[in-house]
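User
Please review the sequence:
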Amino acid sequence: MRRLILACCTLLSLGGCQGAYYSMMERAGVHKRDILAERVGAARDSQLEAKEQFKDALERYRSVVQVQDGDLEERYTALDREYRASEASAKTVRQRIAAVEDVAEALFEEWEGELDQYGNPTLRRASAKELERTRKQYTTLLARMQAAEKRIEPVLGVLRDQVLFLKHNLNARAIGALQGEYRSLQGNVDQLLRDMQRSIDEADSFVRRLQAPLG
């Protein structure tokens, strides 16, 4: 039965019915706090994968514009493949950040609404303090994730332009014209990787604190 509930929950989640999804997960014993930790972990993993993908794309770009030997058509095809993989990675990162935002908003709204249900003022204050601490940590995490995500499009934009240019100008002269762009692209990728690593580190720290016992 639990497996059936979880399968139904997955379908609801994919369909965008988040309210019903959270309710069904709650009945299955999985709370919003657990879902938030899981989604932050998934967002972190997507950024780890994106880091590797953009490093691969930069290396492929370098091989196209700086290595003299080899078939130009093959190198272009490989670069185009890396660009498309980078685009897919970027899409996954955006989707997983959005999923984190959705459950975090639901969690904090529920948490704040339940504060008035306390009869014990000491417990209420403790819960309110924990809510404030968690929300502050989440705000830092989200800012780091969004900062890293914003770095992606400039890198994709450069790759997109170069792939399009090479598609219609696949010759040694065109390759030479793109050599000057490598250093600029490398700078953008390096900054992207640094921002992603900061976001990954913050995600790890957030999940540890979220799952730590109170006190």
Confidence is low (pLDDT under 50) at residues 1-15. The chain has two domains: 1-30, 40-211. The two ends are 35 Å apart (CA to CA). DSSP finds six helices and no strands in the chain.
